[in-house]
Automatic annotation (TrEMBL):
Organism from which the protein derives: Telluria antibiotica
The UniProt record lists the keyword Oxidoreductase: yes
Pathway in which this enzyme or protein is active: Amino-acid biosynthesis; L-methionine biosynthesis via de novo pathway; L-homoserine from L-aspartate: step 3/3; Amino-acid biosynthesis; L-threonine biosynthesis; L-threonine from L-aspartate: step 3/5
EC number: 1.1.1.3
Identification of the protein by name: Homoserine dehydrogenase
Length: 439
């Protein structure tokens, strides 16, 4: 059988990695896919650099629409990133009857509902394993491997850049800027690294996983997003002293508030007990913990960023599309795991309604009765205390009191924090970091 023809949009970190792995493992891949996968055309900004990578056998063009509109191309592989141009290209490819493989989580989190609807109508596939947790086959696990289960929650480290930054800062004492630069040089960071640092990239990925896990449309706009830019080194140290590690987690979970079903969708720095496997996931590695009713807990660990780990997922999708291209669309695995007509209308909960535990750091003037005031405010709000760490007074007789609470609702903590901040003995703002035992 003749090889299937792929057109690559973009030949940067992931594009070049995809090309190299396809070349290196072409025979193995052909044996799995049932026919060869040939890169017939690439579109890039820097033509010279691209020609050095792909040689003279592959047509290199500057205009990505030349790939998308080329009748000889069977599969368009979108690896340029961003929202607008990528959306136009992918919709045009679909309109032209081409299958699409993309690593672009930003595109899918924002425009996935529209793109999947268009693909369904046209009978083509849009595959996106590389978009979530890079090389870890988490989309396949959630969508196919766990399809017998009612999934309860999905939580994990899904941004390699921020995990790399937190690990290197803690282990090597390096400053934020230096480690970010390294993450960029290693090809982990997004073109705009604020997407990584501010938690947006993790929220894109979480939105996709949430849709697949619970059978709901993608709702990126309802995600609660906090990144690591406000994290202070002192909290990383106090967390360690209390037996925890701070990780940027994405968490999505079914929950019931006041008798009504809802879904949590949140990304924020989180204390995790130091003994948990997730607490020990370091560098650019990702890990996703899925809780499901039949199988129980399963954990997926691996490289979430970088050229070849991401290429591994892109090519797995190419193989899937090659195998399934001729199957009738209704017999294929649905894009979002559930049949498009079966998506549920369960609301994403406002952040005030979520239940979790909290790390609170209060800087106080070291006076008699300060601790009593704090415990009274928490008790009045119905918040019970799990652990307290009080440091020796330092400069200007100020000291830090760190409190770990048991589970409570975010809105009760917000109210308690407001009262603590209004005490005359409280210095500055209360630092609040959420805590998940992930047990
Ligand atoms: N780098 C990584 O570890 C991972 C990246 N991704 C996603 O993969 C996609 C690509 O990421 P990278 O390879 O890291 O980016 P990159 O910046 O290294 O490469 C982007 C490529 O797209 C081309 N390009 C950009 N705008 C273009 C335009 N207007 N016309 C033609 N070509 C254009 C550039 O020339 C370059 O070849 C993004 O959606 C990213 O979020 C997903 C998982 C991991
Ligand atoms: N910038 C992302 C790349 C992979 O998705 C990350 O750091 O995880
Ligand atoms: Na993946």
């Amino acid at each position: 059988m003749k090889p299937i023809k792929a057109g690559l949009l973009g030949l940067g970190t992931v594009g070049a990695g995809t090309y190299h792995v396809l070349e290196r493992n072409q025979e193995e891949i052909r044996r799995r896919a049932g026919r060869g996968i040939e890169v017939a055309m690439v579109s890039v900004r820097n033509l010279e650099r691209a020609r050095r990578i792909v040689g003279s056998d592959v047509e290199v063009v500057a205009d990505p629409f030349a790939v998308v509109n080329n009748p000889d191309i069977d599969i368009v592989v979108e690896l340029i990133g961003g929202y607008d141009l990528a959306r136009e290209l992918v919709l045009q490819a679909i309109a032209n009857g081409k299958h699409v493989v993309t690593a672009n989580k930003a595109l899918l989190a924002l425009h996935g509902n529209e793109i999947f609807e268009a693909a369904q109508a046209k009978g083509v596939m849009v595959a996106f394993e590389a978009a979530v947790a890079g090389g870890i086959p988490i989309i396949k696990a959630l969508r196919e491997g766990l399809s017998a289960n009612r999934i309860e929650s999905v939580a994990g480290i899904i941004n390699g850049t921020t995990n790399f930054i937190l690990s290197e800062m803690r282990d090597k004492g390096l400053d934020f800027g230096t480690v970010l630069k390294q993450a960029q040089e290693l090809g982990y960071a997004e073109a705009d690294p604020t997407f990584d640092i501010e938690g947006v990239d993790a929220a894109h990925k979480l939105t996709i996983m949430s849709a697949i896990a619970f059978g709901i449309p993608m709702q990126f706009g309802s995600a609660h997003i906090e990144g690591i830019s406000q994290l202070q080194a002192v909290d990383l140290r106090y967390a360690e002293q209390l037996g925890y590690r701070i990780k940027l987690l994405g968490i999505t979970r079914r929950t019931t508030v006041d008798g009504k079903d809802g879904i949590e969708l949140r990304v924020h720095p989180t204390l995790v007990p130091g003994a948990r496997l997730i607490a020990n996931v370091e560098g650019a590695m990702n890990a996703v913990l899925v809780q499901a009713d039949a199988v129980g807990a399963t954990l997926y660990y691996g490289k979430g960023a970088g050229a070849e780990p991401t290429a591994s997922a892109v090519i797995a999708d190419l193989v899937d599309v090659t195998r399934l291209a001729t199957a009738d669309p209704y017999s294929r695995v649905p894009h979002l795991a559930f049949q498009p007509t079966e998506l549920a209308d369960v609301p994403i909960l406002p952040m005030e309604e979520i239940r979790t535990s909290y790390y609170l750091r209060v800087t106080v003037q070291d006076q008699l009765g300060v601790m009593a005031d704090l415990t009274r405010i928490l008790a009045d709000a119905g918040i019970s205390i799990d652990a307290v760490l009080q440091k020796e007074p330092g400069e200007k007789a100020r000291t830090d009191i760190v409190i770990i609470t048991h589970q409570t609702r975010e809105k009760y903590v917000n109210a308690a924090i407001a009262k603590i901040e209004s005490l005359a003995t409280t210095v500055g703002k209360v630092v609040r970091i959420r805590l998940e035992s992930l047990g």
